[in-house]
Each structure stands twice: as structure tokens, then as C-alpha cells.
């Protein structure tokens, strides 16, 4: 199990440990001098506005596993885009440049902290019903939000427990009334479930889903 593996590594029964991100947190290996991060690009390209932020945190946490004794530690990061500024900021731990870049992008593309996010998820066992119902719901609320609405689209994992799911994301500027937005969504869900074909479709509303 996990505890046995960690103890064996700590006791030098073997000198190489391969693991997921869980090995980056809360572990104190005094004799580790080299840590490698494989394929950082894969995590950076994950479809989430926080992917760069999470990569920055990951590399900093990994770096903290190396060189915890007197010996200087080393971190090697695998990437196919070493000349990209963001990679440089992450690898060098340059928080100020990283923050300035990210906050500018989030403001330009309307992501937190400049807006609130509302994710509407529609679920059903029938794929065709998920497609048609999510399209109906999108068209129902589009006139209220226009360019501030994304979707409907399948998430990274599109089927869970035999139910397909599609997401609609709404970006709410801070100048807008959140209570008014909630009323629009509530009325739209009521209209949606008044349609007999869609009554069995599950609708989940998640405010600030991150």
C-alpha cells in the first residue's frame, strides 16, 4: 500500500520513486536530491482556466521535495515548449511575472476574479436527449447572457455512472445582479421541465465551480 511504499523509499530499500501528484504534498524525504516532472505540457493544456496556476503550484511543490538536507536539490521539467514565457515563469518560480501574465489573460477573457462563473450541467442516460435538451436550454438563456455564455459542450469526462453530461458556462460580470441571474435560471429550469421529453433530464447548477 501507499504507506509501505513511502516507508520503503525513506529507508533506502530503493532509490527511485515514481508517482502521481500525490507524492508532491506533505512528504519529507531528506535524501532526495533529484525530482523530475514528466510532460508538464499535458497539465498546462488541460481545458481549465486554472491549468497554468495549478502547474505553477505543482512545480513549486515538487521543488520542495528535493534538497531538504544539506545537499543542493535539482528539479528537471520535461516540456516541448521551453521557449514559451509561461513555462519560463513556472520553472523559474517567478511568481510576479506569472501573476501579471495570468491576471491580464483572465481580465481579457472574462474569468475569475473579474467575473463569477455559473456552470449548468445536464445529465441523462440517453446521449441524444442530452444533446437536444442542452441545445434547448442554451437557446432559452442565450438572449439574457449572449457573449457571456459558453457551450453546451462535453466535459473532459463526458459519462459518469452511465449518465452522459453536457455543460453550459455563464460568466457574470461583477456589475450584474446575481439574484436577477438566479431568477432567470430558475424560470428557465421550470420551463425546461414543463417539456415532457425533458422531465427526466437532471439539471445541476453550480456557482463558482472551481
Tell me what you see in this structure.
The protein is an alpha+beta fold and 210 residues long. It folds into 2 domains: 107 residues, no CATH class; 93 residues, Ribosomal protein S10 (Alpha-Beta Plaits), CATH 3.30.70.600. It is built from 7 helices and 7 strands. Strands 3, 4, 5, 6 and 7 form a 5-stranded antiparallel beta sheet that branches. Helix 3 runs parallel beside helix 4 and helix 6 packs antiparallel against helix 7.
Q: Tell me roughly what share of residues is in helical segments.
A: 40-55%
- Gyration radius, rounded: 22 Å
Shape: elongated
How many separate domains make up the residues?
2
Provide a short characterization of the protein structure.
This protein has seven helices and seven strands; from the N terminus they run H-E-H-H-E-H-H-E-H-E-E-E-H-E. The protein is α+β, with helices and mostly antiparallel strands and 210 residues long. A hairpin with a 2-residue loop joins strand 5 (159-160) and strand 6 (163-173).
Key words describing this protein structure:
single chain, 210 residues, alpha+beta, Alpha-Beta Plaits, 2 domains, 5-stranded antiparallel sheet, two-stranded parallel ribbon, 7 helices, 40% helix, elongated
Which helices and strands, and how do they pair?
Layout: H1 2-10, E1 34-37, H2 40-44, H3 51-63, E2 74-77, H4 85-92, H5 95-108, E3 115-124, H6 127-145, E4 149-153, E5 159-160, E6 163-173, H7 178-193, E7 202-207
Helix pairs in contact: 3-4, 6-7
Amino acid at each position: 500500500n501507499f504507506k509501505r511504499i513511502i516507508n520503503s523509499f525513506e529507508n533506502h530499500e530503493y532509490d527511485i520513486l515514481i508517482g502521481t501528484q500525490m507524492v508532491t504534498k506533505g512528504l519529507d524525504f531528506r535524501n532526495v536530491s533529484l525530482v523530475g516532472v514528466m510532460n508538464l505540457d499535458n497539465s498546462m493544456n488541460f481545458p481549465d482556466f486554472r491549468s497554468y496556476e495549478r502547474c505553477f503550484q505543482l512545480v513549486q511543490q515538487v521543488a520542495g521535495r528535493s534538497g531538504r538536507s544539506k545537499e543542493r536539490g535539482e528539479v528537471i521539467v520535461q516540456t516541448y515548449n521551453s521557449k514559451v514565457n509561461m513555462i519560463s515563469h513556472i520553472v523559474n518560480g517567478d511568481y510576479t511575472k506569472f501573476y501579471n501574465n495570468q491576471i491580464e489573460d483572465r481580465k481579457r477573457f472574462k474569468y475569475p476574479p473579474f467575473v463569477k462563473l455559473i456552470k449548468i450541467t445536464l445529465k441523462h442516460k440517453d446521449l441524444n436527449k442530452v444533446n437536444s435538451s442542452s441545445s434547448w436550454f442554451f437557446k432559452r438563456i442565450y438572449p439574457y447572457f449572449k457573449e457571456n455564455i459558453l457551450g453546451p459542450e462535453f466535459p473532459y469526462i463526458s459519462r459518469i455512472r452511465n449518465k452522459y453530461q453536457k455543460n453550459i458556462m455563464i460568466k457574470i460580470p461583477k456589475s450584474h445582479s446575481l439574484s436577477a441571474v438566479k431568477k432567470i435560471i430558475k424560470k428557465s429550469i421550470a420551463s425546461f421541465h414543463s417539456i415532457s421529453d425533458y422531465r427526466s433530464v437532471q439539471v445541476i447548477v453550480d456557482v463558482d465551480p472551481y
